[in-house]
User: Which sequence fits this backbone?
């Protein structure tokens, strides 16, 4: 009965977050494959789609999802590493969840060069997350959008466009929790754990807040 209630609450919260005018799955799939009718219906019937959306929203709310890069660079700055460490801490709480990393550039340079640079930026993020103990099976195909999807559409250099984005994209298929369809239990497990966990004392590790992605590297 409790699990059934969690399913209802999670579904209601998800629809409230996504909104009525947004294509199902568009938040978590920038390739557009969630628009496939058969896949979309299958994921909706099994519950995976709504819970993927719920987790994607939770990830964006609780962790900075973007790191930025210096002009023509794919090395991670100290600020970027701090953000990715925070991402890795969040990801480790949910061993059933998969992620993608998307690479982007600003509008300076050729399309081919920027696509390659975007891929290097995304791969740098993947390599760092692997170094933090995140298994490669949970990091889906790295994708580069190059300069095709700028946040700020200007012709010159723009640090906010030079970025890599980490995003929730689904669940590990062979995980026991997923095989049993316990998506709600996955989403709410850490909420319950955090409510019963002793508060960190001043000066303990992990109590230093990490700010948003750097805007000038």
Assistant:
């Amino acid at each position: 009965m409790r699990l059934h209630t969690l399913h209802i609450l999670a579904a209601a919260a998800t629809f409230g977050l996504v909104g009525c005018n947004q294509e199902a799955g568009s938040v978590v799939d920038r390739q557009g494959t969630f628009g496939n009718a058969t896949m979309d219906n299958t994921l909706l019937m099994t519950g995976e789609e709504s819970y993927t959306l719920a987790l994607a929203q939770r990830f964006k709310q609780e962790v900075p999802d973007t790191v930025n890069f210096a002009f023509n660079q794919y090395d991670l700055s100290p600020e970027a590493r701090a953000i990715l460490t925070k991402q890795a801490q969040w990801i480790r709480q949910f061993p059933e969840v998969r992620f993608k990393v998307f690479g982007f550039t600003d509008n300076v340079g050729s399309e081919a060069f920027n696509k390659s640079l975007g891929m290097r930026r995304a791969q740098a993020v993947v390599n760092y997350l692997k170094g933090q103990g995140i298994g490669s099976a949970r990091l889906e195909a790295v994708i580069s959008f190059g300069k095709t999807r700028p946040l700020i559409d200007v012709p010159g250099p723009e640090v906010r466009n030079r970025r890599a984005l980490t995003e929730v994209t689904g669940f590990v298929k062979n995980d026991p929790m997923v095989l049993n369809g316990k998506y709600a239990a996955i989403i709410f497990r850490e909420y319950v754990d955090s409510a019963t966990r002793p508060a960190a004392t001043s000066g303990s590790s992990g109590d230093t807040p990490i700010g948003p992605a750097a805007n000038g590297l």
In short: Residues 40 and 72 are 38 Å apart (CA to CA). The two ends are 51 Å apart (CA to CA). The mean pLDDT is 73.
